[in-house]
Design goal:
Length: about 290
């Protein structure tokens, strides 16, 4: 039951025993919001912590808590640090059965500030406490997806090896932490990974392995396949001009390579290098 919409009728605890000393149990939502505004304006960190403790004990909803955190972020972001420290200290909160909800506060702050790695760590703490109502868990699910997307995009921008990013994506799938947005993120990352793997195999002269990786990439529903088409074309040209291939290629090898050229022609991708390569290939086949 959400008690936050109306005054609380609980008996007031003595200040010495109260988890939020000096605050009335009958405080309304409007009164609490005003006190938060005052605490933010006057940089009163201890009062702010008590007010959030009041919210958690008195069953304020995730949306109501998030609304107050939005106000704090907009009006005094520096004071968030004290709330993060408060949310990370579970000892007293476990007694009140609000440790999970306190961790939720930390998750929202970190996520809102774009601090995605700390947000993910706070989510792990939230899950470990198992004392928050289901509506908090539902909210956390959305924040978890957003945090992972933010972290992975940050890693991509900072040129973290694609192998590392792919490993994390696979781990998320296995944990059933997945969404349409993560899937959309994964498509171009996976195709880039296959292109990278293909390039490495091409350096070793492993044309079969290089084509296999690129054909795996081409199966994915990437919106713009031009980079993969280009890599495929480069691989074909490289093979046509490879002295070892030219000296050992069988008729079947030449027909397979010609089929790969025809595929690119069918998808309307062509380059001057492919034109030259096709001329050499037809010469090898005996059509010229």
């Amino acid at each position: 039951m959400n008690k936050a919409a109306e005054p609380i009728d609980n008996v007031m605890l003595e200040d010495s025993n109260s988890p939020y000393p000096g605050l009335s149990e009958k405080m309304t939502r409007a009164e609490l919001s005003q006190k938060i505004k005052d605490a933010v304006a006057q940089n009163q960190t201890e009062l702010l912590e008590s007010l959030f403790c009041f919210m958690l004990v008195n069953e304020y909803s995730p949306e109501q808590i998030n609304q107050e955190l939005d106000y704090i972020r907009a009006n005094n972001p520096a004071i968030q640090d004290s709330l993060i420290r408060w949310s990370d200290e579970p000892k007293e909160k476990k007694k009140l059965k609000i440790a999970g909800k306190a961790a939720f506060v930390g998750v929202v702050i970190h996520h809102g500030n774009g601090s995605f790695a700390p947000a993910i760590k706070a989510i792990e703490r939230f899950k470990s406490y198992k004392d928050a109502p289901h509506e908090f868990a539902d909210f956390i699910d959305e924040l978890e997806i957003g945090s992972w997307l933010g972290l992975l995009n940050h890693e991509l921008d900072n040129q973290v090896p694609l192998t590392n990013i792919m490993r994390q994506l696979e781990a998320l799938r296995l944990k059933h932490i997945w969404s349409k947005d993560l899937a959309l993120f994964a498509i171009p990352v996976t195709t880039a990974f296959f292109r990278e793997q293909s390039s490495e195999k091409l350096l070793d002269g492993d044309f079969i392995g290089a084509y296999r990786d690129l054909e795996q990439a081409l199966k994915l529903p990437e919106e713009d396949k031009s980079a993969t088409y280009q890599a495929y074309a480069d691989c074909i040209v490289r093979q046509v001009n490879d002295p070892l291939f030219r000296s050992r290629a069988t008729k079947d090898d030449l027909e397979k390579l010609n089929a790969k050229m025809e595929y690119l022609h069918e998808v309307d991708f062509w380059t001057p290098e492919l034109d030259i390569g096709r001329f050499h290939l037809k010469n090898m086949i005996g059509e010229i």
